[in-house]
Amino acid sequence: MKQIAQQSISNMAYAKWGVIQSFDAATWTAKVQLQPIDQDNPELSTTNSLPVLSPWVGNGWGLFAPPLIGSICLVNFIDTSWSVGVVVAFSFNQSNAPLSVPGGEFWLVHQAGSSIKMTNNGDIEISSNQNVQVNAENVTIGKMSAGNLKALLNEVAQGVYNGHTHVDSMSGTTSAPTQQMDATSLTSHTKAN
Questions:
Q1: Range(s) of the domain holding residue 164
Q2: Do both 63 and 111 map to the same domain?
Q3: Dihedral, CA atoms, 9, 30, 92, 112, nearest 10 degrees?
Q4: CA gap 55, 61 in Å, rounded
Q5: Distances (CA, A) of 131 to 114, 127, 150, 157, 158
Q6: What is the strand order of the sheet 85-91 is part of?
Q7: What's the pTM?
């Protein structure tokens, strides 16, 4: 009797680790190879398409962080049924090592290196290896010192001038100016005061 009960419990489905095999961004579902692989029936180790949960969802908005193929995930099965499951979380591992983040901080770091970090001292750090784009009708910068804002505006003026081009007489585009603006080129017309 005890053996039958243990066999019955071992066949129940609750949660299993798996590896993402494919992901469909249109339906937000993934196929998962459950671990360990069933050596007697390896074809049974790969699930049908399962929903991938997100902590914040709405109609056309939410938190979108699709899994990479090969990501380690946790699949919860509902009502102890192997056929009804959801991908609920992902796990760091030897191939995908975590960063050493101090307790209490929140870091959102992309594989390209861009990041948003909320630190324990109250700072928010936004970093990008490329560009930071802000699309808004109004942008308010509170408590920015006049010196920092002037430096930012001067840098923007230099960047605009140094990168500008013109349409030439052949309807082509000229290259950027060979004479570049630097800090000594700034005048009262181009310098933030």
A1: 146-185
A2: no
A3: 180
A4: 12
A5: 9, 9, 20, 16, 16
A6: 50-51, 29-34, 15-24, 72-77, 85-91
A7: 0.64
CA torsion sign for 166, 169, 173, 179 is: negative
Could you tell me if 43 and 116 lie in one domain?
no
Enumerate helices (H) and strands (E) in the chain, giving the number of each: 2, 10
Contact 77, 84 (CB under 8 A): yes
Give the pair of three-digit tokens for residue 2: 């005890």
Q: State the Cα angle at 172 between 166 and 174, rounded to 5°.
A: 40
Residue 28's identity, in one-letter code, is W
Query: Which of 75, 91, 107 is where one domain is finished?
Result: 91
Q: Is residue 193 part of a domain?
A: no
| Total count of domains within the chain | 3
Q: What is the dihedral sign for C-alpha 161, 140, 118, 88?
A: negative
Q: What is the CATH number of the domain that holds 32?
A: 2.40.50.230
- Assess whether 50 and 113 both reside in one domain: no
Residues 109 and 129 occupy one common structural domain: yes
For 102-146, write each residue's pLDDT tens digit: 999 999 999 999 999 999 999 999 999 888 888 888 877 776 665
Same domain, 47 and 121: no
Residue type, 72: I
Sign of CA dihedral 93, 121, 65, 48: positive
Q: Express each pLDDT in 39-72 by its tens digit.
A: 888 888 899 999 999 999 999 999 999 999 999 9
